[in-house]
Amino acid sequence: MAEGHLISIGLLAAMVVTAACALAVKDLLTAAALFGAFSFLTATWFALLGAVDVAFTEACVGGALTTILFVSTAFRTGRSFD
Amino acid sequence: MTTYAFAAALFTIGLAGMALLPNLLRKLLAMNVMQVAVIVFFVSLAFKDGATVPILGQGGAPVAAEFMNPLPHTLMLTAIVVSVSTTGLALGLLVRVRSRFETLNERRLLDRLR
Amino acid sequence: MGASPPPRHEASRVRRLLGAAAFPALFTGLVLGMAELPEFGDPASPASTHVSPRFIEDAAAETGAANMVTAVLADYRGYDTLGETAVIFAAGLGCLVILAAAGGRPNLPAAGMSHPFGSVILDAATRILVPVVLLFAVYVLIHGHISPGGGFQGGVLFGSGLIMMRLVWGPAHEGGAHHPDVPVFGPSLRSSLMLACAGILGYAGIGLAAMAFGGEFLNYGTLPLGSDPAHVRELATLGIEAAVFLTVAGTVGVLFDTISIGMRENGVPIGSGRGPRE
Amino acid sequence: MRDVLPGLLVALPLMGAALVPLLAALSRRTTRAAALGLHAAILAAALGLFGSAAADGPIRYAVGGWPGPWGIELWFDGLSTLIAVLVAGMACFASFAQTFGADRNGAAPASTPLREGLLRGALLLLVGGLLGIVATRDVFNLFVFLEISSLAAYTLVASGEGRGAVAAFRYLLAGTAAGSLYLFGVGFLYALTGTLNMDDLAARLPSVEADAALTVAVVLIAVGLSIKAALFPLHGWLPDTYVYTPTPAAGFIAAVMAKVSAYALLRLLGEVLAGTTAGAVVLEITLWLGILGVLVGGILAVAQRAVTRMLAWSSISAMGMILIGVGMGSALAITGALFHMAAHALAKGCLFFGAGGIRTSEDGDEPGRWAGLGSRAPWTLAALTVAALSMIGIPPTAGFFSKYYLLSASIEAGGPAGIAAFAAIILSSLLATVYFLRVLEAAWFRTPGDAPDVAGDPASRPPGPVLPRPLAVPVVGLAVLVLLTGIFARPFERHVLPDWESGTARISAPAP
Amino acid sequence: MTEIVSLRPLLAVGAGLAVVLPILLSGRRPALREAWTFAAGAVQLGAALSMLPAAFAGAAHTSPALPLLPGMPLQFRADPLGLLFLTLSSILWLATSSYSVGYLRSLGLRHQTGYFAAFAAAVAAAAGVALAANLVTFLICYEVLTLATWPLVVHKRTAGVLGSGRSYLAYTLIAGQLLLGAVVWAGALAPGAQFTPGGFLAGAASDGVLRVLFVLLLIGVGSKAAVFPLHGWLPAAMVAPTPVSALLHAVAVVKAGAFGVLRLTGWVFGPDLMHDLGLSLPLAVLAAGTILMASLRALGEDHFKRRLAYSTVSQLSYIVLGGAIGTPLALAGAAFHIAAHGFLKITLFFCAGSVYAATGREHISQLSGLARAMPFTFAAFAVGALGMAGMPLLPGFISKWNLALGALDDHQLWVVALLVVSGLLNLAYYLPILRIAVFEPGDDRRVREPSAWLVAPPVFAALAAIVLGVAPDAGARFWFLAESAARSVAAHAPQFLTGGLP
Fold this sequence. Notes:
The complex is a heteropentamer. By secondary structure, chain C is mainly α.
């Protein structure tokens, strides 16, 4: 895989876009979901680069655990960013 | 280089979000983005053209050029753990802040702290 | 208290302006520096040629682990991993201090995700899924040597399985008056904490045991577990992966319980938005 | 000794952190005894290492039996063991103070045995993290232990009531940004050299030709660590954090937390990255920012009306002073910086224990609340006076000697920076005179009725001693140490400096 | 000069320090507490006297050097000038202590324990200032002196008094910090910064640097010496109890400042260097200005103690003046004036305090007819006043006479004129006090001399002053000490070997 590999670039671009969106949306649950998507994209990219352990962990942690924690916090603190 | 630049972009977005967004939860999300950016950077350092996953197959003696560099991967496992731990603790703090001051908006919080 | 605060909004406007200038500068600076780094994917870069070749070429012989990441993680840089375990333990301990251990009781009828969802289909699906997830977690732990995975990933999965139970069946809680509608399942907060502590103690204990047998801290090679050093290291690595697993699983439980459930302090739930005013 | 103590030093606090919360299930007394015993053992290990490093030279310790650069090495020379002794010693006092309501500013003990155990665990984790930073010879390992100490510190900061959580969250954001910046910088260094070991880095960096990349790396690392070290203008997190932290933890955090980061800054910029042009430039900038920090911290301390907040700003001034020494980098300056770390840690710990306790017992934080304390608790107040005089820099307290070294170093350095540093240090002493004498005058010469800034009836104050014993003992003990450190300064200098000089000489010589 | 390594200098300095804690601990038993004070005073005096013979023989007791800072040990050395100051302060400490006992008891003041403890610390620090062998030791003792006298100044603890205490500390501590900077600087220029007769800074740096350094050092020591315009704190500090004022003026603070100026001009810079840098004349003019200004202020002052305070400002500037002129006779006169002024001024303050203790009166206009009721007190006062003005056979005359001769050696005629004018001014503000007390009819017949505790010290001090004036070289041989101090400086200042000394 060369530097300019389309899948790699595409994934990276998608990561930047989802990250920006996660920070921009109004609703907290949407933001958490977008952050989950961001984490999965990242994990996919890691896998693409051969970092399977990191990809696995990122999927477990970023995609699942962090998102769950954000969502459960959202239930405790209210959904909207006030 | 392009890959590195994406890491730099994510890092900048994250840091800017931490500094500029008014809501504490959102700051926290931005913080996570920033941490992921560092991980992306390290993992891209580990990449070698023509190499494979750093797990030994059945073949003979391994040659360095054939496998991805495992060291940054290891470091980033640790970094991910650090990131989730920080996030967990921060969320705990936010739950407490919210219950005490009934807002997570930085500006309102500062008004209430006065 | 304190000095009269400066006009906050003014300050934040200034900060915004500064930020608008600072962050593009940061990005530019980073990219300028990156332009001089070795090319992406360059097999002749210092990172690829200096320290790492040993981890690739000798790890299997020296540590007995086919997964080089596990070899580095648990053995060459096992001290880092002890630190990492301590970090996650610190997070669990912190959440307990901040949210739960004020001497209160679990805040069972609280709002939010602590309510059992209570659907028949969910209940049935969970009954099937949870054992599979927990089993897979243990598999990930044990198989970390030769495939992606290890104590940390296994621990997170195990913890996720527990969270799944919590989500569907509601939380467990400490002794005393059980809520009549809530089944008790999974480890309590206190036992989650004990798991986490046990993990740290186990990890550092293995390290100290190595010292007792004349090696450096965490030098598993000196443990009297066999004659082949690589094999001994492999066994010890499994031991510390298990310790990491315990700490991570326990902490994930603690984090979820404290953040999503909360506790009652003096009869008032902490973190429900109706906390005691100081 | 030399092959056991390093492992014990780093392992004991982490194990203790897991052990003490478990013991909390047994009884309070067991928890306390175990925690104190552990802290004493850690201090003993640190002292043993200090003695051993002074007698037989620096100790290199390969954790796991893997030598650097493959494994992680620990490195104990005069410098690191001195800081380790400081951290471990302050931790003993803090642990003693934790018997006094570890989680609150009120005079009651922690609400449950479990909570006390958890807080003692958090303190042990904090100590473990700081000792890890001090001991390590690996730049990534430094990050890991930085995060351990940070997380434990956030916990302790937030363990009080109310505003502590907000302060802790802001500290967390700043601290995590600092950690990430540092880690990014480490990534650059790794990409350029392929190693994480400090010795290896220092040997390989001179042959690296990528100046821009190296500059970015140095700047990222310096900014990251400067945030943790509260270097002006990156000090924003500090005042609230120090003020809202419960007293026993505040005494410890205010005493050593930022200093360990300053130590890391010294280690990396002054030793590992010293050969690079960027390193030299960044050190120069650090020096100037230190000068600014000394002045800004001092001026804002004068402006405060609450004693603990005043102490917090005075810490920013003191960190500026330490970083002046780090920035100058001469032998005299490093001695001064180290000395000031020790002097300030002891004095500031003493003052925070005392001011925090008085804030509780007198139900308020203004200097006027201290009125009449001199006759109610003469010994405690005498101890606090000694600490305050050390902060001002009055002989024969430790603060005088550290200022003396730093002033001499400024003269020796000369040039605009030297003159500015000289003037700033003198000026900061004057400012310290202003803000500390306000408190001392109230304590010794005012009667509770005539304090202008305290409203209400003095008789309405809660009864009881000014400081409970768990706080009074550390306060007095630290004051005695403040005096002794000043008087027995020279031996320290003799042990610490040669190691440092030979270390930098070894590092800056090109690798064979 | 031969050096004798001994522990006696440490004993002299340590005696006062050692009793601080015992005094604090025996607060419940006044007799024991005061016994500690007298014991320490006796030890200090004994140590001082035991070092005199060596000084007469041209040797100096030197304490071992305690390592403190690189090249700058903590060290004490009993050279003639230091010994003069030390002996003076030990004698006057004993006198003041007995006076304090009577004063505090008759007025029933509170906080007596803290008072005696701080007093002991202050005198120990003054002894340290006297014997300091290098700048760092001097600085340390100087700062301790500042802090030890603060509780004494604010002894009454009212808001106004605390304000005065604050201005006292503001002046002295700020000056102390400047002194710290200057000491560090001097230490960097001349390693060790050891007091050397004739100075040690010659050629150590460029002229500009040395001038800046001189100004810093002068501010540092001059603010305690109350040199114009740094004298603002001194009249304010008159809120202190009278024995404290006596101590401050005759022994500890102000005198230590004047002593410091002398050390600065003679032992740090040296007359040669001062002349070369063009610093002598400005300093002399500054001193002259201070003398005149303070005398004029004293004329207009009705508050008894404050008039004495302005008199101190004026008198101590003679010492500064002598240091500035720098000829052997001028230096000897200045050094002798330390002792002369010490005995005279403490007499005056004791008298003022006795009047206050007996009648509660603080203003000169209220003194009518008191001389008849308090004959001993006012007799002593007359001795002090006339001595201050420079009457022959009293010690003030000897110092002023030598100052004048020294000035003539340097062809500074105006100094002689100044001395005459200021002597007249002295008479102008002291004689009215006597006139009112002696000739104006008294309004209260019940006034009597206070207790013997309050009468004996001023009488003793006055008698001592007379002895000193008649036979300046008897007993402790103050004149000999002053002269040999001046001679040691002159030996290193060849420019000024213009004769005059026998």
